[in-house]
Please model this.
Amino acid sequence: MQPKTQITSEMVSHIAKLANISITNDEKAALTAGFNETMKVVDILFSVDVKGVTPTSQVTGLENVYREDTIDRKRVFTQDEALANAPRKHNGYFVVDQILEDD
Amino acid sequence: MKQYEPVIGMEIHVELATQSKMFCGCPADHFEKKPNTQTCPVCLAMPGGLPVPNKKAIEWAIKLGLALECEIPLFSKFDRKNYFYPDLPKGYQISQYDKPLAVHGKIDTKLGMVRIHRVHLEEDTGKLLHTTVEGKKVTLIDFNRSGVPLVEIVTEPDIHSGDHAKLFLKKLHQIIRYLGISSADMEKGSMRLEPNISVKPVGSKDLPNYKVEVKNINSFNFVKKAIEYEVIRHIALLEQGKTPVQETRGWMEGKNETISQRLKEEANDYRYFPEPDIPPMRFSSEFIEDIRKQIPELPEKVKNRLMKMYDINKSVAEILTQEKELGEYFEKTVSLSQISPSIIANVLVNQSVNIQQVKPEELIDLINKKQQEKQVDAGVVATAIEAVIAANAKAIEDYKKGKTAVLMFLVGMVKRELKGKGDAEKIKVLLEGKIHG
Amino acid sequence: MKLNSLTLKKAISKLQHKEISLSELVEEAIKEKNKELHIYLTLNNEAVRQASSQTEKQLEGIPIAVKDNFLTKGLRSTASSNVLKDFIPPFDATVVMRLKQAGGVVIGKTNLDAWAHGSSTETSAFGSTKNPRNKEYLPGGSSGGSAAAVAADLCIAAIGSETAGSIRQPASWCGVVGLKPTYGRVSRAGIVAMASSTDSPGPIGKTVEDCATLLNLIAGRDIYDATTSPQPVPDFTKQIQKGVKGIRIGICYTDHEKLKGSDAAKAVSEAGKIFERLGANIELVPVSENLQKGHIFDPNYAVAAYTVVQRSEVSSNLAGYNGIRYDYGRAFFGDEAKRRIMLGTFTLSKGYSDRYYITAQKVRSLYINNYRELFGTYDLLIAPTSPGYAQKLGATKDNPMYGELEDILLEPSTISGLPGISVPCYRDPKTNLYIGLNIMANYWQEEKIISAAYAFEQATQWNSWK
Model:
């Protein structure tokens, strides 16, 4: 049986970074408390005997679903459609502030 | 002083030349297309866009695995690799984590075998363009390339030098081209390489406790240079008692050196989990065998066969089998004519024949014509030889004294007499005979 | 006559006989109580025009309310979040396409819990919807707007989606019918993804037959969704009058500690007696803390498993909202979305994934096994849809786990992918609030739950409880 996890505020900072979400210090405190509330419910998972049980990630039982290698013109957007909702665009491109060389 | 040896592994990404993308029906050929004209709900990652895998891409990846002598497990699946970057529209890349399509293969080279750890399928990202717009520094993003099928090949750290890396890559490149699954063009970006480099003391059984990844290399020559640069750099550090930092570095083409890229704070946590939108794959052995049957004769085999069947030497055979099309063209031409294979081989190797434009039948005609032009009456040749011998007494003396190079000069003179006709080899033999009496 | 109070079946008939006109139907919906109840976030101004060109098709241009997490081409789709506040999709969700092909018209987009994260609509960035049965109460969620639209007669029928209760629970709280099909029966293409492995779009309507009619039109394999099944689609209305004679029905959860003595437990026990009178064999399936034959596995573990799996999938599904291609960016996520994304990121992260994500998926397998065993004995399982009546406005705000706790009785079947239908089974005359009866069957057996629900509906005439 695994010991219960206590989520610390440092962990919350790390998680926010991983999740690409900015949080204020106030939010951090509320989130930490909230997570620990949630983890109390989640931790009951460990009182279940799952020895020898295979995890299920899909319930359909389907396998080998493919598409043929053909072009589906119906679904291809025009450049205008693709950019229609873009907050920033330029000459057919999406635009963001310059990213430092980090390829 | 301690001796060190390089320990190198490679990660290669190859864009597959399928018609459509990996998970949607957008065109996969994105070279020089207007930006964002080949996207759809799936590859632009609109809400509700769901991936459906391209069967051909899967078959081709398995084909490559088989050609690299890999095992093909009968069960495979896709997984999500989660990270944030503007060119990754979903915020995750659909890739393969623990059940790749192919494992445990190898490529043999003159400098040693390189084991293939795994071959798997994933999707490509969009393209970034750093520029300035209205005075502001921006990055422009084009998603035409987003979702194009990529095969990733990872080797074991069996490569032990820059030359070895080059040889390995050339072989891999050749096999990929033979299979017809990708243009594998480094300049177009349809083949990308990243060596992972470290060094260890010679004789040490342990793997080094660090490795440096080098990016931004776009030719086999630069791979060699980057490796050699890094090896020297690592050895220098180790001799100072320091361990090279485990990091990603970029190859600086102009300066012939690598520089440290922005240090990533910690190793990325990709939070892999099975892709819930795509059912897993379970292959029958018949399915795998059907793919195996589609593999053409691979370069090494073709080369050996040509050497044996047509009595041509290794270096000529190597050139002829550089590209599958050339070898096929050669054999076709041989089968259609009476001309000796070695002549055809020589013509193909020494003269730039555009095999796309010149049909084998046309080439045969051309060779025959050339032969005929060279045809000349034996008597005329004999007369020309006598004339040249008579006119070049000093040269004959020099030749008899040992200056063998003079012979070719005399052959040239005879050909001039014959106005270019005649076979140089034959003339040489006749001259020798005449001179020595 | 309130035109929108017609059932789908009656409205189609009256339109065919030219007794009513389409524009009357549509305009009535637009003029009515929407502002007060806050049901529609966006109305389709083209609805009347579009409807008039659909008269030769099956749905005759009938206006359908669509939950705002379904993408509708040219019509704003927000998932009730500020992140997508002004998003105008360039394509239709497959479900929407199929409705249109059958002659349906999208009358408007209904409110939901933002990103479908919740069971009340209180996490909507644009304000809660009010329960039409009693305006001081919540409609449930996440398809609260769709259920309310049906209950308020602001549409003829509606479309919602369920990840763990989001069709059935609001149907229960609003006193209407909600049908959650088998996972893989209806395409998810073009729907804002929540938990990819359980999301199931489905109809919400005034009668069981209306829901069955709509299901006919939207079900079936979609080439744009690899998780849809090639399972053949029957005519779901064909066997609707089959009845329940000889059917074996198991009653679940009425003995659970959370429901002891509750109106929900009483109402469902009563429902069991009604089924018995109709010829079915009824038996209590006792709850058990452990996996045991002939018992239903305690749903508390399903809440834990579902919370982990759903939030993990959510954390990944919401990663694409980065303000670059069509949205306002991550700073616009509401609190609930942030909570779920972050918890899901945690449960997938290095060092914790095996412990949480994998364990949760193993517990999920246990529920699937439990149902496999039970459906070997029973044709149907019935239970309360929700542990109680609708809750008051404001009751669910800022509760870090409200959504998952409320749907405790539905999560075991949704994580297993099973179909279920909620039909009203009791109304409190003091508050005018409802209890819903959840009828579940094995995979692909929507016909069974439809015919049972229909028999129940006919026997109780719940539609006339006013």
Remarks:
- The two ends of chain C are 16 Å apart (CA to CA).
- Chain C has 15 helices and 13 strands.
- The mean pLDDT of chain C is 94.
